[in-house]
Amino acid sequence: MKDNNDMPGHLARRFQQIAVAVFLAEVEDAGFDLTPVQYAALATIKANPGLDQVTLAGLIAYDRTTITGVIDRLVQKGLAERRASSRDRRARELVITDEGRRTLRKITPAVESAQRIMLRGLSAKEGEELMRLLRKAIAAGNDLSRAPLRDIQA
Amino acid sequence: MKDNNDMPGHLARRFQQIAVAVFLAEVEDAGFDLTPVQYAALATIKANPGLDQVTLAGLIAYDRTTITGVIDRLVQKGLAERRASSRDRRARELVITDEGRRTLRKITPAVESAQRIMLRGLSAKEGEELMRLLRKAIAAGNDLSRAPLRDIQA
DNA sequence: CGATATTGATCAGTATGCTGACGATCAGTA
DNA sequence: TACTGATCGTCAGCATACTGATCAATATCG
């Protein structure tokens, strides 16, 4: 039987498990309570004010059904707001609040520290190579998940 | 602001997302209904008959609270059994059933196919390198998650 | 031996993620 | 314009994962 350590799927799960744990620990040390998913959503809302939920989902490769709950929690924490769109009454426009902006700014060092810690076993060169290979594998498999990454179309 | 594609945490999440989707699709095509976690647990039970749940958790780096539900479902599907341990009345000994063995055997091609598909964007050499780097990063971060990998101690 | 600490399994609660479905709305077309 | 199909957001249901707690049983040590 193949060893777990020869299975990319197992290694993927394990690495992600560590990445999430490191992220949460660093963020909590900084005095905040924000998950990796919530952070990514908030940062993307800030960079694309007024975008709708489906577009947000595409930009960070979430399933659109997952977004609902994530936004719920961002709104509940006062970091983002959901507004009715004037152009499309089905859609909700997402905007970051002032507190969301403040939180993002203050949390950034912890987030960057987390990225370093999860690569601490690798040299800088190896870390770069790992990211390159992950990007390449992800690009080839993008459409294999229900929540592919999608650019904003103009 | 840093791009998502420069964040190992984001790449980890995305790669794992694809890995799970590929696994489930291949296994379903083969006519089975088994998640990656259930597969890993079942294979580990087969390789270590009579092990208890905490040991199983350590061997595949699960949280022990997650194991309970996973085993519940394996038992419910008739693939594994939970038996009272004679040596330690707190512990449950896990064993694979004949049907579990049959399922494992028949599902193996699909599992191996899934591992290939999730690396299809990479050359064989790159795939090996990706796995090497993941193993190295994971080893360095093993104790950072609540569910570290643990060997069986004799 | 007995008090204390530890361990195995489970539970409640919360947060991703997925499938499949739904109602409301919009877009394209006959 | 009326019909058809697609899209946006949400929901119910299920399966990982985690935190923190509890109960029963075992280990350890004075």
TrEMBL record, chains A, B:
Molecular function in Gene Ontology: DNA-binding transcription factor activity
Gene Ontology biological process terms, A to Z: response to stress
Annotated ranges, domain HTH marR-type: 8-139
InterPro entries membership: HTH_MarR-typ (IPR000835), MarR/SlyA-like (IPR039422), WH-like_DNA-bd_sf (IPR036388), WH_DNA-bd_sf (IPR036390)
Pfam families for this protein: MarR
Protein name: Transcriptional regulator
Record organism: Bradyrhizobium nitroreducens
